[in-house]
Amino acid sequence: MLVEDTTAFVEQLEVQRDDRRAEKRLRRRRQSEVELLRVEWERRLAAQAVQKLEEELASLQEPAESGPGRRLLVVRRRRVLERRIESMRARVSAKEAEALGARERLRDFDRSPRRNRPATGAKVFRLHSAQHHLECSEKRFARLANSQTDLPVLVGRKDGRTWWWYLDRFWWDAEGLDAQEVRVIVLDGDLQRKQHAERVARARETLLGEERPTAADKPLSPIVRFAVWCRDRGRCVDCGTAADVGFDDILPPENGRSRSTRNVELRCTRCREQRAHNQERARVSRAQVAAAILDF
Question: What pLDDT is attached to residue 15?
Answer without folding.
Answer: 62
